[in-house]
Amino acid sequence: MEKSLSKAERTRGFIIETTAQIFNKKGYAGTSLSDITEATGLTKGSIYGNFENKEEVALAVFDFNCAKINQLIRDKIEAANNYHDKLLVYSKVYKDITMGNIASGGCPILNTAVEADDTNTLLKDSAAKAILKWEKNITDLIEKGIHTDEFRKDTQIRQTALSIIALIEGGVMMTKVTNDFTHMDQVVHTIEFLIDQLRS
Q1: What's the DSSP call for residue 2?
Q2: What is the model's pTM?
Q3: pLDDT at 1 over 50
């Protein structure tokens, strides 16, 4: 039987979920305490009674936003019939993110990495861990595809994984700053071509 959440846990969860889109759209620096209290309807005391500071809220929100996207990706990967299609899930999901169909505000990893850079070590570290986890997940899929003879044995595994991530994040960034969705369309086509080349 699943353990019921305490009032404090429920409040923390409410704050995180309610402010997730705000932080993803406005960023850490752009999100004020007033934004948080206005969105949640809670007082400053209630916010700081559950989180040490705004940074702690931002870190929890980042994890929440990434987990939401990762769960969607896992579900779609599980439903795909082969490793070629499983790899394609990433570009398709991030295209939906770019179109605003998922994770309003865009990719939380890109948003956080660009904003934090050298100004916020904790947020920067969280973004770095998310990228490394993403790389590992793609690497695992490629390795399994090689093991089942779906992909070529001479596939450059890490190079391919990093190229897919760089293409996706570059496409998200270019689409966001130009508001031209054809950028992401072209990137998705390039990723499809790249993954097609892996086939035995």
Answers
A1: P
A2: 0.89
A3: no
